[in-house]
Amino acid sequence: AKQLGKNNYQLYSMSKDITSYKKFVLEKDMRKAIENEEFEIYFQPQIETGTGIIKGAEALIRWHHADWGLVSPGEFIPLAEENHLVHKIGHWVIENVCRQLRSWKDQGFTLRPIAINVSPIQLMKKGLVDVVAKQLSHYDIPAKYLELEITEGTLLKSEKMVLNTLKDLRELGIKIALDDFGTGFSSLIYLKEFNPDIIKIDKAFIQSLNAENNREAAIISSVLHLAKGLDMKVIAEGVEEHSQLEFLKQNECGECQGYLFSKPVSRKTFEQMLVTGYLK
Ligand code: C2E
Ligand code: CA
Ligand code: CA
Ligand code: CA
Asked: CB neighbours of 18 closer than 8 A, spacing ≥ 6?
């Protein structure tokens, strides 16, 4: 037993070393990743629940790293938040989405709003509004085609700066979506204070709809009811199964997003979807 314990410890300590080595390398390489064109934006369609029509998409960043392969944003965005590269990366995403919208427009596609994730750190620094306004006007794209997704954590930092930035963004005509709804604290207080345009119900709720107990179902239908009363749109995230979709249909959830329809896909694949304009 002693022997096993020791081996386990060595395994543990080795994987810990790999993790911190990887962190170290990613952090170092992140500085050059934009210039090296290692980032790419994937799009995950957002679907009108009853019809399958593609109403928009969420932009999700991907990093193709020479040695580590595809690195997920869940891994490197937190590092970028620590070393403040999240501003540079965030600007890259905003510019690229605006350029993409321009290109779709020029190709004759009907434009749909694209949602961009913004980290609380980005909202705490001056200048985000200017960056967004500048890119929109440079590519001549109406603000209604951009949505920004923020998490409840962002509102937790209810510093004047954050609230002012959000207010200015909305004055530009950009819609704000409250991401991962239900996972933070005091969600209801934020709804009242902040009054977002869109609520995204976190995938944890949708996925536990499978379970036999109906508590999640009760929570989701209450959220849908509440959102209706407050005149907010709702998107259900992480929809993977038909039974979940059925429930969301019955409860009149406006839009769905999840693997049942499509994983996040490359620009090219998304364009093929836009040709028909709906997913079944
Ligand atoms: P998020 O904003 O909550 O994005 C949803 C995540 O759920 C995405 O992971 C998406 O691929 C995944 N997902 C979508 N449908 C399903 C489903 O049906 N089942 C399951 N199990 N998962 C699903 P991804 O792309 O790895 O992104 C992870 C997180 O990284 C995002 O969570 C977001 O917080 C952050 N992120 C992604 N792109 C950006 C970005 O450009 N800027 C910033 N600041 N953060 C980003
Ligand atoms: Ca949308
Ligand atoms: Ca999101
Ligand atoms: Ca989410």
From this structure: none
Residue 133 in tokens: 């306004």
ipTM: 0.98
Tell me, using a 6 A CB cutoff, whether residue 264 lines ligand 1.
yes
The continuous run of DSSP H or E covering 200 comes out as: strand 198-201
pLDDT tens for the chain, 280 residues long, are: 445 566 666 666 777 777 888 999 999 999 999 999 999 999 999 999 999 999 999 999 999 999 999 999 999 999 999 999 999 999 999 999 999 999 999 999 999 999 999 999 999 888 999 999 999 999 999 999 999 999 877 777 667 788 889 999 999 999 999 999 888 765 677 777 788 999 999 999 999 887 666 888 888 899 899 899 989 999 999 999 999 999 999 999 999 999 999 999 999 999 999 999 999 8
Closest CA to 133 of 162, 168, 109: 168
> Which residues neighbour ligand 3 (ion) by CB within 5 Å?
117, 149, 179
* Dist. CA 39–CA 93, nearest whole Å: 9
Which residue minimizes the CA distance to atom 11 of ligand 1? 264
Rounded to two decimals, the pTM is 0.93
